[in-house]
Design goal:
Number of helices: 6
Number of strands: 0
Amino acid sequence: MTPLLNDHNSYEDILESESLPFMKSSPGWKHVESSEAFRLMPQKPHFQPLEKQHAFLREGEALGLMVSFANLVEKTRKVHHDELKCVLEDLLDLVSYFKPFGFNVQPIQARLDELLRDKEKEVQLDGELKQVQEKIMNDKIEEEALISDIDKRDEKLRELQKSIDEISKERELLMKEKQTTGSMISSSLNMHNEIEKEMQRMKAKFDSITTAPW
């Protein structure tokens, strides 16, 4: 039987109610259906699974589903970038609950699928970033150890250079002493030669005296 037209039910509402398992009689429908969620994503759910419920409960449960779906839409729209992956997965699980009632869940599901793919990629990138950060930290530790070893080698080189400089100075002094000694030896050799020559002259003179006639 077609319901009578009244202040709360337009002709369109009555036609719609004839395809629903309950009569839209609550004034709450206008409030729910005019919400931003349903303006952005118009819906025409059939609520057929509610036929299994007691007739008295059907409209209330249908309104509850509408409110819950609107909340799901708003929650999906307002998901933050730092939202946990499990929150997105919970929202995606909820989407499948509304589909049997005739809600068009494809836009929400597509968005949540995309957000989850991005979140998974972000989690992957975050893992890679942490690995790179750990490698950088380990490399810096190794670099600091190498710098410390280089500093020690530089200190040894400075000490060796200092020793080399000291040895070079000592060698220079020794070379000067050697030159002086060489000059002294050369002078002594000259003197030695002169003495030998003088001795030979003396011997020759001695011989000439002894062999001279009387």
